[in-house]
Amino acid sequence: MSALTGTDDWEHLWGVPNTSAVVITADGTTTQTRGDADREYGLASVTKLLTAYAVLVALEEEALALTDPAGPPGSTVEHLLAHTAGYGFESGSPAVTRPGSKRVYSNQGIEVLARHLAEVTGIDFGTYLSEAVLAPLGMTATTLPGSPAAGGRSTADDLARFAAELLDPKLIDRATLDEATRVHFPGLPGILPGLGRFDPLDWGLGFERNFARPGHWAGTRISPNAFGHFGAGGTFLWVDPDRGLACVCLSDLAFGDWSKQAWPALTDDLIRAHG
């Protein structure tokens, strides 16, 4: 029996209209599927993973560098990716703290970074994302009609392709992905929207690294080395490199109390089933 069968009860228990979920193994195979894998969903902040990956491609192409100034005074590309540039959460928010001093999760920082990449390359960010990431991975159902921080749209099938790339990178060197998924500016406390304060709140270059902490949205069985992201629209993607396993789960009910119950249980069941 698939560990994803638990999602079948989400509509009855919590009123989740639609859920699409897939499990991907280290060889890129989708081993489990639930729901319509071709149904399109708003990704919310899972969009940040795609945006970060486009920036990693740009880093390898030497279009920019982590140490390049970007954002408020004293901030760099690295600060923006790691949510330490000092911006507040909302789009258009001003800097609220000194770069590198706190982990302030920020849509604004990611949007500033996308604009910076467009400026240094002379290529619209949406076009760069498509040419650098989406087209090479065959993600034909994925679009960016809105913010590069939270405005992407995709399907579980398309994101399974992206998850396979995160398990075994082809578009960038493994060393680049390893650098992106290590904790940057370690030891900083912060608030994860919808879940509360963590100390520290670990983050890489666009990738959350706070997994296996008590109260985490992905439960407690997942490896501390896991990385990924969740979206307030009811979406998540995680990769557990220690187990060679990834999961994509998309729904159309906003993150809330239901997610705090359903997502940890689902992930714990998946990890338990895969040993």
Give a structural overview.
The chain has a single domain, classed as DD-peptidase/beta-lactamase superfamily (Beta-lactamase), CATH 3.40.710.10. The model has no long low-confidence stretch (mean pLDDT 96). It has 275 residues and is α+β, with helices and mostly antiparallel strands. A hairpin with a 3-residue loop joins β5 and β6.
CATH superfamily: DD-peptidase/beta-lactamase superfamily
CATH fold-level topology: Beta-lactamase
Main sheet characteristics: 5 strands, antiparallel
CATH class, named Alpha Beta
Global geometry: globular
Protein name: CubicO group peptidase (Beta-lactamase class C family)
InterPro entries: Beta-lactam-related, Beta-lactam/transpept-like, Diverse_Enzym_Activities
Pfam families: Beta-lactamase (PF00144)
Domain Beta-lactamase-related: 21-258
